[in-house]
Amino acid sequence: MASITRDVFGTLPDGATVERFYLQSESVRTEIISFGCIITRLETKDRHGNFTDIVLGFDDLESYTKKHPYFGAVVGRVANRIAKGKFTVNGKDYHLPINNGPNSIHGGLKGFDKVLWTPEVIENGVQFSYTSADGEEGYPGELRVWVTYTLVGGDLTVNYKAQTNKTTPVNLTNHSYFNLAGQGSENIYDHEVSINAQHYLPVDDTMIPTGELCPVEGTNFDLRNPVDLGSWMAELKEIGFDHNFCLSESQKKQTCARVHHKPSGRVLSVCTTQPGIQFYTANFLDGSLKGKGGAVYPKHSAFCLETQGWPDAVNKPQFPSILLHPGEEYNQTTSFQFSVK
Ligand code: BGC
After folding, report:
1. pLDDT (tens digit, 9 = 90+) per residue, 126-166?
2. Which residues, judged by CB distance below 6 Å to any ligand atom, belong to the binding site of ligand 1?
3. How far apart are CA 139 and CA 97, in angstroms?
4. In terms of pTM, does the model score above 0.90?
5. Protein residue closest via CA to atom 7 of ligand 1
6. Phi/psi at 226 (5° precision)
7. Whose C-alpha lies nearest to ligand 1, atom 8?
8. Which residues contact 253 (CB under 8 A, 6 or more apart)?
9. Model pLDDT for residues 209-249, shown as the tens digit of each residue
10. Which domains does the chain have, with CATH numbers?
């Protein structure tokens, strides 16, 4: 059984209170706030039993309210990129804010990471709910969303549910930046990674998938067996990983990725019902942000494993659909499982 306690994290400019929830088991301690459903702290044990905070973030609420790289947040209504911020549903064209080169990313200018959610303590965790108005950030339909975090032993599970009154794209993920050596460590080169995917999605120069599925076999995207990130990334022609890996579309929860930090013994396994996972090696961090405890976060100082639908799926009929229709329920679950080896 996890213990759950709460306090006040801060106050928004409009006077609203942001609460912080502490979820603790014998092996994991995490802190999650009602603004953006952000995981602000996540401590796990190393092989000697010492707890360290392994996610990047800020000490204060104000930093989370400003533009930042989505540290720890729930991202939506549609995570990842939509080409040129345009899509068509039921014959009607929709235009979203352009906030990433020529494209729209992570829900727009004020996505789910920048709104206040309503919290409710439940067994082993906390549930946050939010109603996104029809037309919010350009998306159709009123969308009711529930994000539930539960902690059982070493497993932190996130469940996402949503219902709409008009057909809309929905793609929700958590955007935590991990460094299993401890947040503030210089890089992730001493991490070993595997991703259980036979295909990945190549992208154009604006990072929109070209539409083909590329077999990983014989490429640097073949992570089916564990690789040492440092030497592997040195071989990569790109600045790092920032790609969607295609998972089986069975809707059954499957283990899709595993990261092992040998020096500390920390292991993170990710299990999900989602059809894709964006593996991002924090290529765009540049050390300019002031992180927790005065930490700086340079390029490659963290990794994200964002389980989700495929980028630009709303414009690519050959990709698994991310459309949610009235009367249906969006229901996806991802577990982050922490252990030591
Ligand atoms: C994207 C990156 C982006 C980061 C922060 C990731 O999901 O794949 O390209 O820089 O989010 O926005």
Report:
1. 999 999 999 999 999 999 999 999 999 999 999 999 999 99
2. 69-70, 80, 105-106, 242, 278, 280, 284, 306
3. 10
4. yes
5. 80
6. -60, 140
7. 242
8. 271, 272, 273, 333, 335
9. 999 999 999 999 999 999 999 999 999 988 999 999 999 87
10. 3-340 (2.70.98.10)
